[in-house]
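Good morning C.,

I know you're traveling, so I'll keep this short. The sequence:
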Amino acid sequence: GNESVSTEASMRTLYELLTSKSDYLDNTVVIIDPCINPDGRDRYVNWYHQYKNSPNNVDPNSKEHHEGWLTGRTNHYMFDLNRDWAWLSQIESQQRIKFYNQWLPHVHVDFHEQGVNSPYYFAPAAEPYHEVITDFQRDFQKTIGKNHAKYFDANGWFYFTKEVFDLFYPSYGDTYPMYSGSIGMTYEQGGSGRAGLGITTQIGDTLTLGDRIDHHATTGMSTIETASQHAERLNDEFRKFYQNRDHTYKSYVLSGNSDQIQMLTALLDQHQIEYGFGKGSTIKGHNYSTGQRGTAKATGNSLIVGTDQPKSTLVKVLFEPNAKLSDSLTYDITAWSLPYAYGLKTIASEDLVPSLNTSQNKGITLYEGSPSIPMSENDYAYVTDWNSMHDARFLAQLLQNRIRVRFAERPFSLHGKTHERGSLIIVRSDNKHHTDLNGTLSRLASEMGKSLDAVSTGFVDNGKDFGSYYVKMIQAPKIALLSGEPANPYRFGEIWHFFEQQLHYPVTVVEKRYFDMDDLKEYDILILPDGRGYRRFLNDNALKDLKAWVADGGKLIAMGNAIGSLGGENGFDVKAKKTEVDTAQTKPISHEALERQNMKRAITGAIFKTKVDPTHPLAYGYGHTYFTLKLGTSAFDYLKTGTAVFLEKETKPVSGFAGSLAQKNIEDSMVFGVEDHGRGQVIYMVDNPLFRAFWENGKLFFANALFMVH
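The tokens, ready to paste straight into the viewer:
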């Protein structure tokens, strides 16, 4: 949105195509999307008009070159749309992919801007390239890059290639097209939101909006020129891309939570990826849970995604257990496998597994609706399960309809059916205030596709009766979410989006300048997003007040780097782990080798298998293991009590890159935990279960933190 020159350059490109360069259109169709982030651009333009000098000031210290915490880079919910191509969490991405799939371009360019002092970047890209990228796709990037260089050399413009921007993470505007058969490329102009109408660079030159338009318009026209000159070859190679791709794994067979499978099929439908369901055959292959070969039965509830379809390459990239990495220096995360993200038991088979309904199941939607549930005024209560975000959304609607809900802390059986921890219990006598309990319950259950078990008694066959201490009432919490510095805007946006677009439960966004403990007394829960600079925000006095608020019954959820500011002599009991040093290093390291040497301490978005305490309220609905996406090396000791999810010794990533020292540093560390403090709790989330809204299997932890932890 604030990389504004792309939109400006699109208008000039369009004009030239209709006038001086119209001959390119003799054999080439050109589609221009002038702005993929209209909300962000609107925010940036309005901000710039508020603060620019008149005439504009090229001094980089001027206010017009410094956006605030909420920038135009992101959309309304502060999501980076350039990282949402595969996950489609945002409405802009969902609408764009529909149009993209109508055309499946042979060449796709994503126009961007980078720092003011950077020269122009264009293809070819840096390593790592994903192994599915064909030789032709690699070579044609060079062909286009050389054509750009011809024009840049003639004008004396600086540029670089083969650095920084790789072709690995699948959710970018260059990689997603690559995995769909296109020549996908990112172009980066120096400038971005800081540049405005003009700015002085560090070497004393003035970079103007006109300069930036010249550069983007030039690479745009050069791309079209090259495509036009090679139209026949592009068509031929595009056909080859969709023929006979020989992938190691021919089928991915996924089983488990039906709500998670339904969420995954909804995503596959958007990508036009075909799938089916099992026919009872026994399959062998790579078991994602163990990392070894295993067997499973493909039942009628097993989702089967095969590679015998047009989108076979995209299927491999999104589903493979561990993408082959040619270089550890990457621009983004190195693991994203959907079976782990959705928490489904998966076998990757070298054989094509037979399935039913192999064409797209377009009828499957998030909420299918359910048949009417027989209800009687004589029913004692209604019980339903708790093991997915689908259930959390249902609970959110119940609470907002003023229906009182309890949950079970222990498993129980009643009327011949077993109900697990976290099961929701709606007791008729709790809801005498509700004038139409049956009507409201029936409507919500039908709309959301939830089944309810009517029970005639609170006297259970096994477990704890409904009047037990172990059957707790769920309060409808009033929730505050910290915005502004020190919170990271992306991490804040993920939480904001979670409440408004996924959970559908109200949250109050508060800024630190309006934030004190008197205001906080109005809220049951305070969420601190991941961010930098919390130690300045939570000084000794603020931390003392925060501890008093928790002790008085408040619930604090601290995520990522917000956790480190809560420990110490005057803080809570959380303790950062001591960092291991590299004792093996005995010789000086060359300056050139330093970057790679530092990768020993890095984790670039890798997936780890963790242990879970499923008896803890923070982990209701989970089994004994959970695959977490770890985005950094922050590590904290186990809590004395309340460590719900954790890593053990000799932990290694099941997918993605983690340096050797980083692996040592995170051994025996907490992932999610709860510390009791007075009448309240502090919930620690070291890893981010809401990352980019695509790690579907982590979201129930967050819902548990809101509703189950007490």
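Safe travels,
E.
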